[in-house]
Please model this.
Amino acid sequence: MTTYVAPSILSADFSKMAEELKVIENSNADWIHIDVMDGHFVPNLTFGPPIIKSFRPHSKMVFDVHLMIEQPERWLEEYKKAGADRITFHIEACNHSHRYLAAIKEMGIASGITLNPQTPLCAIENVIEECDQVLIMTVNPGFGGQKLIEPIIDKIRSLKAMIKEKKLRTLIQVDGGINADNAKKVVEAGADILVMGSAFFNSTDKKSLVSTIQAL
Ligand code: DX5
Ligand code: ZN
Model:
């Protein structure tokens, strides 16, 4: 199976988003990763549904929306209406993740759950059947440009084993500090989708970065 690349627009130039969305499309990346931060669940603040809606006419690519917000259940419908094709929320942000994963699927889009570095994998053991993707945070969420936390690579391996044991088709996504140097390591551990913010936007040859990772 090939590896998917999902550039994160958190590292894009916000003053020219229509152009930045084209830059992602021209790189032949697979999805666009959109980081939603509420200033509460994480210290940083980014954008909400109206801004995502304004991106939609400028791109036909898959919008992979990563909600770093409290009470994500209140907003699922709004993000779907804004143009999300996939919605991932944090297990640490709610008590009834199984219900909300099912709600996302009922809306006809892909569901995802994510775990902060401190959250053990057993937290999702009983809800993983409802997930199209599980996002393993390889940094503490909130900011781009951080360094990948190495011990988390073992968590990717354990998640891969859990998916295999349960005979599921759940995709494993990784996010935070991913670059050309560590991509192979996370793919070997089991990652299917690599989110890349700063490494993508700082790259002078985005096409070759993307195709190298897709071939891993
Ligand atoms: C961090 C976000 C990431 C971020 C990744 O909280 O969830 O998606 O954009 O950026 P890099 O790749 O620079 O770590
Ligand atoms: Zn993200």
Q: What stands out?
A: The chain is about 30% helix and 20% strand. Residues 8, 10-11, 33, 35, 66, 139, 141-142, 144-146, 175-178, 195-199 surround D-xylitol-5-phosphate (ligand 1) (CB under 6 Å). The mean pLDDT is 98.
